[in-house]
Description:
With 250 residues, this protein is mainly α. Helix content is 76%, strand content 0%. It is built from eleven helices and no strands. Helix 9 runs antiparallel to helix 10 (218-230).
Amino acid sequence: MEPERGRHLERFVAIKPVGNETFYREVDEELRKEQLTSWWKRYGWAAIAAVALLLAAIAGFIWWQNEKERRAGEHAEALLKVYEDVQAGRTQGVDARLNEIAEDGSDGYRASALLTKADIALQANNEAAAIAGFKSVAEDEDLPDPYRNLALIRQTAVEYDKLPPAAIIERLRPLAQAGNPWFGSAGEMTAVAYLKLGKPQQAAPIFAAMAKDPNLPESIRSRAVQMAGALGVDAVVEAPAAGAAKENTQ
């Protein structure tokens, strides 16, 4: 019995022991495989679903962008066609086409369509409809400011003679400022309103500022020079002397 036990002990001692580093690495690899398998069983389908949803979202966004550009092109063509028909006197059915653009288009096309409707009403001597159209755009806070400001200028110009001068001044105050893109039109209407109120001292500086503003149309600047002069304000912008101009070019 003892010899047999000794032979088993010899065989056990003869087996080369596995190094600790190798042993730990094998255990670590097995543990990782087990964790990965367990994770995949638990979350695998959720991960696939998340990736699928992400790809679908990206595809949807690309489609939406392309569709948006396509529809914008259609609205631009439709609006251009309306302009051509109106210019040629073909106004039958134009309102319905503009309504379609206004309802289906972006903010810019919606504003353009509504402003065009108001202008057509004005050409047809329907001032009430024109004023209502311009007012709806001017008061629409969802539209960009350039469209709203243009509508406010057009609305005020149409009903100018019907409004109290003080109401005109108050309405156009934000736009009747030097440097504002609408300073020419708003400033002119505001200055004239001051004259109607018998306040030339408020009107003169506005005319003078308009006369010296190089960004305004020449027609507005010319009128402003004349009005400022009539009110005793020298608003003529003198050209540089010949000697100074020559010196600046050297």
